[in-house]
TrEMBL record:
Transmembrane segments: none annotated. This is Eukaryotic translation initiation factor 4E. The keyword Transport applies. Keywords: Cytoplasm, Initiation factor, mRNA transport, Nucleus, Protein biosynthesis, RNA-binding, Translation regulation, Transport. InterPro entries: TIF_eIF4e-like, TIF_eIF_4E, TIF_eIF_4E_CS.
């Protein structure tokens, strides 16, 4: 690393001047000429404009934004609490990189205790049928037996998540509210929730 040495640290002999003058030797054998530093010219308007420009944060260019912002929820069936008290928001994200950072730091669905759920819904939609976006909707349901928990559950759930955040339902992605994975003792379920059950074209295409 380059360092700048202060003037006070430079060794001077008794014959050297003790003030801040620049010493210029004209010719060998002549006395040194003392001059004061030449002041810098004032900055031009263009230089002022460039210096006032905000430096862009490289992070803004390194992440890949998603079309929607998403929220991941966790439900734990604690019978001493109400249903809504058992539902917790884990995190929200709106870039590909933030999705993977979240997914790689949570438990896999297959490792959850029976009675627990993960839910991924668009920002502003809660994973409950009472939500305004859900109450007229329906769901496509995948059921898995107990043996499929270790072999298929995590793969099916991840593929479902990627379909959601990747808007893989073409023109009907706006009809998708979110998805839920239910881990249960007698078998697990994965469901995709839609916003309008009467929209037959959307429901059929999503399923």
């Amino acid at each position: 690393m380059a360092t700048v040495e202060p003037l006070s640290s430079v060794a001077m002999t008794a014959s050297e001047p003790q003030d801040h003058y620049i010493i210029i030797l004209i010719n060998e054998g002549t006395y040194p000429q003392e001059t004061t530093p030449t002041p810098n010219p004032p900055p031009t308007e263009e230089e002022k404009t460039e210096s006032n420009q905000e430096v862009a944060n490289p992070e803004h260019y390194s992440k890949h934004p998603l079309q929607n912002r998403w929220a991941l929820w966790f439900f734990k069936n604690d019978k001493s609490k109400t249903w809504q008290a058992n539902l917790r928001l884990i995190s929200e994200f709106d870039t590909v990189e933030d999705f993977w950072a979240l997914y790689n730091h949570i438990q896999l669905s297959s490792n959850l205790m029976p009675g627990c759920d993960y839910s991924l819904f668009k920002d502003g939609i809660k994973p409950m049928w009472e939500d305004e976006k859900n109450k007229r909707g329906g769901r496509w349901l995948i059921t898995l037996n107990k043996q499929q928990r270790r072999s298929d559950l995590d793969r099916f759930w991840l593929e479902t998540l990627l379909c959601l955040i990747g808007e893989s339902f073409d023109d009907y992605s706006d009809d998708v509210c979110g998805a839920v994975v239910n881990v249960r003792a007698n078998g697990d379920k994965i469901a995709i929730w839609t916003t309008e059950c009467e929209n037959r074209d959307a429901v059929t295409h999503i399923g």
